[in-house]
Design brief:
The protein has one domain: Alpha-Beta Barrel (TIM Barrel), CATH 3.20.20.70. It contains 11 helices and 12 strands. Strand 1, helix 3 and strand 2 form a beta-alpha-beta unit. The longest helix is centred in the N-terminal third of the chain and has 19 residues.
């Protein structure tokens, strides 16, 4: 191999022993896990909002954001369950530039995987311990999931990973809901095949072990739009939801469900469109009982300040403004959360 082996990294069990979850934290997480599962099984009629920055970048501003989210969760607890997006793995699509907190513990730093592993674990621990909210993260690297498995209440598999067999097999052994995004080309069958694989029993190699999984009955779809030669194509509309419900009906999948990603190709990365798209989806829910059963929530990219910014010297950075995709600022996000709670 044309690469340098720098050092052997600690295994997840060692990192968990060094930074353990307390019994109180575990109790909070387990309670939220069950509440989220009850939404996907249809036992609860609460609506999920998986909401937060495109990428977790600076610990201080991420914690500030999630603390604000925890306060509003108290106001909407009867209608909504808020799951903070704390996406610590998220790199840029082409592999250049910022590679996510896992690779770069500080956006201005060089890659340091050991520091990154420890930092992302400590951040998720802070979120749980200080706000009482357990978070969502994207599973970019299946082998790394175990570093956070006792902290996450929701896992997403991205549009570029959904075709990967290791992602599908690993998802089959995860005990919290896993969302499979439709691929960037928009083929729904690929997404449904991924869900089928993840809901099934599997035997596979994981971190050097032969493992057996029982299947994840809470694996579900995420519609995020797709790319065509003409540009972004959205797939959150009433007709798309009816079509997905019909495709689900042809399968034997458990707990048919979808989360609508209001940004990415659904908005053409026009972050303000997330407000209109959220209202549009909820309007569809109110028009059709099948869609109401199918749509379990929304995924919204939101941070403290509107938009995004390029990474520059630390003194030039705007606090709480995304360094990856543009996000909805806090003032607009708070208003949107309250509106959703009022009309859902």
């Amino acid at each position: 191999m044309n690469c340098t082996f720098k050092r052997k990294l600690p295994i997840p069990q060692e990192v968990k022993a060094e930074y353990p979850v307390t019994s109180e934290m575990a109790e909070v997480k387990n309670k939220r896990d069950e509440e989220i599962k009850r939404i996907f099984s249809g036992e609860s009629d609460k609506f999920l909002l998986i909401i937060g920055p495109c990428s977790a970048d600076y610990e201080t501003s991420v914690m500030d954001y999630v603390t604000r989210l925890a306060r509003i969760q108290e106001q909407v607890a009867d209608k909504l369950l808020l799951v903070p997006r704390v996406y610590t793995n998220k790199p840029r699509t082409n592999g250049k530039g910022y590679k996510g907190m896992l690779h770069q513990p500080d956006p201005l730093s060089d890659s340091d995987m050991l520091k990154g592993i420890l930092k992302i674990r400590k951040l998720h621990m802070r979120v749980l311990a200080e706000t009482g909210l357990s978070s969502a993260d994207e599973m970019l690297y299946p082998d790394n999931y175990r570093y956070l498995s006792d902290l996450l209440s929701y896992v997403a598999v991205g549009a570029r990973s959904v075709e990967n067999q290791q992602h599908r097999l690993t998802a089959s052994g995860i005990d919290v809901p896993v969302g499979m995004k439709n691929p960037t080309g928009g083929d729904m069958s690929i997404m449904l095949n991924a869900i089928t694989a993840a809901q099934s029993k599997q035997t596979f190699i994981y971190r050097g072990w032969e493992v057996e999984s029982t299947g994840n009955p809470y694996c579900h779809a995420i519609l995020r739009g797709y790319q065509s030669p003409m540009g972004s194509v959205s797939n959150y509309h009433y007709e798309n939801l009816v079509a997905l419900n019909e495709e689900y009906a042809k399968t034997n999948l458990k707990n048919p469900a979808v989360i609508i990603d209001t940004n990415h190709s659904n908005s053409g990365k026009q972050f303000l469109e997330q407000i209109r798209i959220s209202h549009d989806v909820i309007h569809s829910i109110h028009q059709n009982a099948d869609i109401k059963r199918l749509v379990k929530g929304l995924m919204i990219e939101s941070y403290i300040e509107d938009g995004n910014q390029k990474i520059t010297e630390a003194d030039d950075m705007i606090y709480g403004k995304s360094i990856t995709d543009p996000c909805l600022g806090w003032e607009k996000s708070e208003k949107l959360i309250l509106e959703i709670a009022d009309i859902i």
